[in-house]
Design brief:
30% of the residues lie in helices and 27% in strands. The protein is an alpha/beta fold. The chain has an eight-stranded mixed beta sheet, with helices on both faces. The protein has a six-stranded mixed beta sheet with strand order 8-3-2-12-19-18. The chain has a four-stranded mixed beta sheet with strand order 1-11-10-9. Residues 9-356 form the FAD-binding domain. InterPro entries: FAD-bd (IPR002938), FAD/NAD-bd_sf (IPR036188), RIFMO-like (IPR050641).
Length: 543
């Protein structure tokens, strides 16, 4: 059979899940064409990846898909989307709030959201279909990728056996934890195996909804049980009133036929209720992080770059952040204004951030719960247990604020000396190099976020001459730069800087009160776009 070979687009994306389509859409908003290769005709109906953070919803706003996503929500808008942790059983009466992401809402430009990943994928597919810069090849499977000095090739085949070879400048593997692109690019992984077989149950029950009316406004439930040594029994709503998913550790020899899953659910809940199973599946509890996210013209993102147990809703959100981080760097390279180190900064920023996410939040939560369960037992010392449980309440709030992925150690931002890229941080309104920019109102109306350009943006608060110097330097370097001139008042003084250079992904590249030298704008911009010969960070002069 003949193989058709053609140059399809600058970027070929293997895998049309949420990360693949998110990357394609973000590239399209930057004027870059792409081809998405996806083997499944429709999104797979497994309710995973449900919790979308405020940061992720900023992306959907930029992509023109926020309204459609919120309309696709399977739980009514007036019903809460928070979580709760219970001790012993779901209905024990010992509980505290968990993952209260609404606590950090003031630092972002959008509300968080909750809906099944297949519903999110459907919205992204529809948005991609509306954008002429995206070609979608549904029903095609990638069989090989390779690269040479001038480009890359992706071999694909459909169910009828027809073959095509796509020629592109770059290939991005968004093809899941068993990524073919990662394997053929020769990108190794560091694995951490917890030696736990987990079950995923999707079931229907109206009686469970009635039992959980004691927890109004809650959509997901984490049950701590002493026998599980820190691992969770986890219930989550798919809709309001009937459909649920559940995952928990089970014996290593468990199959669909040798285990009483209904009894298992009843024991976890602490009561009997009606159950009709839609899906019974299994997965291994392990962590895997690619050691590098790039091999020449081949990149990986999302689960292809990092996989982990679905604890805390970090996975799909991390994948979207991969997509946005990589997108602007690919666009800058294809449009000719990137420095030679810009593409490598993708892995330099995103890889350590996810390694920290896995180590310091997901895995650490297992260890913290294990320690708690071993130390505190209400049957042994009720007063001690109640005091420790109360301390957990405040710890749960602190965790939400502490999860603040940042790029302080990136080679292309001007972070503090000796700093590192990490998921551990702290939300603040101050404009800090390497951190996401918090929204503030503008004196002319609206918010800063609405004025940020798809290239770089300089926020100049009473620093007009410096803004002119940045505009001249950007023109000389060919860097797209939007300038926002305003005053340091009405909330903008919280930025604690009069000059803030914001990257195309809404992270701060550099911030200062004034220029310390006339040549500084060119030096700042050069480093921010990947010219790593620009030297150490310019010293931020103070007023």
């Amino acid at each position: 059979m003949a193989v058709e070979t053609s140059t399809q687009a600058p970027v070929v994306i293997v895998g049309g899940g949420p990360v693949g389509f998110g990357l394609a859409i973000d590239l399209a908003t930057r004027g870059i064409r792409s081809v998405v290769v996806e083997r499944h005709a429709t999104p797979q109906p497994i309710p995973k990846g449900q919790n979308l953070t405020q940061r992720t919803m900023e992306h959907f706003h930029v992509w023109g898909a926020e309204d459609a996503l919120r309309a696709a929500r399977t739980i009514p808008r007036d019903y809460g989307i928070g979580g709760i942790t219970t001790y012993g059983t779901l209905l024990s009466g010992i509980s505290h709030d968990w993952l209260q992401r609404e606590l950090v809402r003031p630092f972002y430009a959008a509300d968080n959201e909750r809906l099944p990943q297949y519903a999110t994928e459907a919205v992204l597919r529809q948005r991609a279909a509306e954008l002429g810069a995206i070609e979608t090849l549904i029903g095609w499977t990638c069989t090989a990728v390779r690269q040479d000095a001038s480009g890359a090739e992706t071999d694909i085949v459909d169910a009828a056996g027809r073959k095509r070879t796509l020629r592109s400048d770059f290939v991005v593997g968004c093809d899941g934890s068993r990524s073919l692109v990662r394997e053929q690019a020769g990108l190794t992984q560091t694995r951490s195996d917890h030696d736990r077989l987990m079950v995923l149950l999707v079931f229907r029950s109206t009686e469970l909804h009635q039992l959980l009316e004691r927890y109004p406004g809650k959509s997901f439930f984490n049950v701590l049980h002493p026998a599980l040594d820190g691992y969770w029994k986890f219930f989550g709503r798919v809709d309001l009133g009937s459909t649920w998913f559940f995952h928990a550790p089970v014996p290593a020899d468990t199959t669909r036929d040798n285990f009483d899953f209904a009894r298992f659910l009843h024991e976890a809940a602490g009561a009997k209720f009606d159950i009709s199973f839609d899906h019974i599946g299994f997965w291994d509890l392990r962590f895997a992080v690619a050691d590098n996210y790039r091999a020449g013209r081949l990149f990986i993102a999302g689960d292809a770059a990092h996989s982990h147990p679905p604890y805390g809703g970090y996975g799909v959100n991390s994948g979207f952040e991969d997509a946005v981080n990589l997108s602007w760097k690919l666009a800058a390279t294809l449009q000719g204004w990137a420095g030679p180190g810009l593409l490598d900064s993708y892995g330099a920023e995103r890889q350590p951030v996810f390694a920290s996410t896995a180590r310091d939040f997901i895995e650490q939560s297992i260890l913290i719960d294990r320690d708690f369960l071993r130390r505190h037992d209400p049957a042994r010392d009720r007063a001690d247990f109640e005091a420790a449980w109360e301390e957990r309440r405040s710890g749960a709030r602190a965790e939400v604020n502490a999860f603040e992925p940042h790029y302080e150690g990136s080679p292309i931002v001007f972070g503090p000396p000796g700093s590192a890229c990490s998921a551990i941080g702290g939300h603040a309104f101050a404009a800090r190099a390497g951190h996401h920019l918090a929204p503030q109102p503008l004196s002319a109306g609206g918010y800063v976020f609405e004025r940020l350009g798809r290239g770089f943006t300089l926020i100049a608060l009473g620093a007009g001459e410096a803004a002119d110097a940045f505009a001249a330097a950007a023109k000389e370097l060919g860097v797209p730069l939007e300038i926002i001139n305003d005053t340091a008042a009405q909330g903008r003084e919280k930025y604690q800087a009069r000059l803030i250079l914001v990257r195309p992904d809404q992270f701060v590249a550099w911030a200062a009160d004034r220029l310390s030298a006339p040549a500084e704008p060119a030096r700042v911009l050069r480093r921010a776009i990947g010219h790593l010969d620009s030297g150490a960070a310019p010293r931020a002069a103070t007023t």
